[in-house]
């Protein structure tokens, strides 16, 4: 039977509580999804701060768990059959934790509605908002050609319109609060960090605004926003 000590990542980020879920992350939108989920479920976990620097995310130890060199990643010492499980990709982690805890995934129709909106975030909202941030605040902000920036501004507006339409008559995207909301809302919060709220017309989406406020008012969300603590 393998143990946590058999994972090379544990040598760089040693566990103080090896019986708990080990989270390797940083408080970006993708990292916050999982911190919030762990706080919402109450599953015992130990967070490890993995910076976005090459010395961390491209270290042999981190790559041994996540060959895609992106946070978050996770080891559950009590995985299926009692064996430790290493897992990466935020959407996969959310689904795993939902099934392990029996929370926030739903059953029947709602389960598939939740998965659909989770995939919408993974394939659309996150990547497109991330590109928007690159061209507005990060490495692409000094590019003189306006077309890349305009492309992602327009795509952000389109995605916000999709969400605005979906939220008519709904408090949460799949009916009940779920991992889909935990995936979507942290990326909405990224617009503030990017300084992009005005350029995408944030005020033009009142349902999205109210949805984000509901999300941020949850105590577990507030606890999970800075997991792991980046100082």
Structural class: alpha+beta
What integer is the average pLDDT?
Answer: 96
Low-confidence runs: none
What is the fold named in CATH at topology level of the largest domain? Answer: Glutathione S-transferase Yfyf (Class Pi), Chain A, domain 2
What is the CATH class designation of the largest domain? Mainly Alpha
Estimate the strand proportion: 5-15%
**How many individual β-strands?**
4
Rg (CA only): 18 Å
Give the second-level CATH assignment, the architecture of the largest domain. Answer: Up-down Bundle
Number of helices: 10
Structure explained in plain terms:
- The protein has 231 residues and is an alpha+beta fold.
- The protein folds into 2 domains: 4-103, 3-Layer(aba) Sandwich (Glutaredoxin), CATH 3.40.30.10; 108-219, Glutathione S-transferase Yfyf (Class Pi), Chain A, domain 2, CATH 1.20.1050.10.
- It contains 10 helices and 4 strands, in the order αβαβααββαααααα.
- It has a 4-stranded mixed sheet with strand order 2-1-3-4, covered by helices on one side.
- Helix 2 links the parallel strand 1 (21-25) and strand 2 (45-49).
- The protein is globular and about 50 Å long.
- The mean pLDDT is 96.
Describe, in short, the structure shown.
The protein is an alpha+beta fold and 231 residues long. It has ten helices and four strands; from the N terminus they run αβαβααββαααααα.
